[in-house]
Amino acid sequence: MAHESLFGVLRELIEARGPLTVADYMELALQHPTFGYYKHGDPLGRAGDFITAPEISQMFGEMIGVWCAEVWRMMGAPKAFALVELGPGRGTLMKDALRATRKISGFHDAMDLILLESSETLREKQREALVEHAPRYVESLADCPAVPTIFIANEFFDALPIRQFEKGFQGWSERLVDIAKEHRLAPLPYPPHEGEGIAPRAVDAIGFAFTLSAPDPTYALMIPEDTRDAKPGAVHEVSLPALGIMRDISKHIAKNGGAGLMLDYGAMQPAGVATLQAVSCHRRADVFSDPGSVDLTAHVDFGMLAAVARKDGLATHGAIAQGEFLEAMGIFLRAAQLKQHATPDQAKDIDSALHRLTDSSQMGSLFKAMAITPPGLRDVPGFGR
Ligand code: SAH
């Protein structure tokens, strides 16, 4: 049946198959071929729904560029390497990173620039922003060439679907998305006639709501041991696609050499609460209000990502606060340098961007940076010793 909106698609699916996992809901809301959030339009920037670090200031991408070039040098400056960005948005981060590194001898010549992106609209913008670097696309990380590879992902993992498990008094259940029904009683005739009970209920579907599966002892097996005995009400989130992609990245680095840098909001040790959130026009929105037209994200479980990388024998660095990482990469020096040639208005903008990116009241500590490298690589830039 042809639908006019995602609401209809989801409703039919739930009616046919029962409540959806949060991951299925998120996947359809973000990636449905016609109505998915990332399938229509450009969500980024001031006019869009949210703004990301590279869109706040060129300094962010520049610091990532310096990181890539330094890591390449530490790898022995291989003559052929791949630079892979996951979810490059408008291409702004990569454009700034590559401008900042254009004078580093041999770096650009050795580089094969590869992008992974599901949105056709954003691919168009990336091609435009990066035209002089001739990027190419892969549909999956398995298609990346067998050369040393540097992976970059900023606010990519938070867009991948999560499942949510909730601890109750009888064990763990899964949080599911169901159709919310409003039960309206038809008015009773007055005075009631004998034998006439309550009038039949009229049931209208009005939207979606969370529901819980029956508690199931097998769910407990999916919860990490240190979380299993959490108090009733605790929520454990896990993103299988995130773990899968992290696995692909780790395996690729373990086999071919390279490194990875992931920046996102989240924590090494999740707080045991539900973090699925919707954002529209720079404001928090209801996760069910208008599926397909609001952005849905969840906090990234860096602890789990790190565990995946270690399983493949890699070393992990961080996650540390984004502010700490940027400071170690020299963002304050870069700001001072930019301000030397700036008008007073521009200098104010630079300071305010610096504050937003690094201050702990802004993006500085909720956002984290984590790197993965082969075990031999020491003194990874930005992560101290
Ligand atoms: N890194 C950019 C954009 C962040 S928004 C920045 O910092 O500005 C998330 C990005 O990931 C978008 O480019 C989006 O289209 C892409 N994306 C989301 N889910 C994806 C998926 N499953 N596969 C590939 N790209 C995806």
Notes on the protein architecture:
With 385 residues, this protein is an alpha/beta fold. Helix content is 35%, strand content 25%. It contains 14 helices and 16 strands. The strands form 3 sheets. Strands 2, 3, 4, 5, 10, 14, 15 and 16 form an 8-stranded mixed beta sheet that branches. Strand 3, helix 7 and strand 4 form a beta-alpha-beta unit. Helix 4 packs across helix 5. The longest helix has 17 residues. The N and C termini lie far apart (59 Å). About 3% of the residues have low confidence. The structure holds S-adenosyl-L-homocysteine. The site of S-adenosyl-L-homocysteine has 18 residues, from helix 3.
Q: How would you describe this structure in keywords?
A:
385 residues, alpha/beta, 35% helix, binds S-adenosyl-L-homocysteine
- pLDDT < 50 stretches: 188-193, 195-201
Number of helices: 14
Spatial gap, N to C terminus: 59 Å
- Give the structural class: alpha/beta
Molecules bound to protein = S-adenosyl-L-homocysteine
Strand content is: 15-25%
Number of strands: 16
Helix content: 25-40%
The profile of the biggest β sheet is: 8 strands, mixed
Average pLDDT for all residues:
91
Shape field: globular
Which series of helices and strands comes N to C?
HEHHHEHHEHEEEEEHHEHEEEEEHEHHHE
Q: Give the radius of gyration.
A: 24 Å
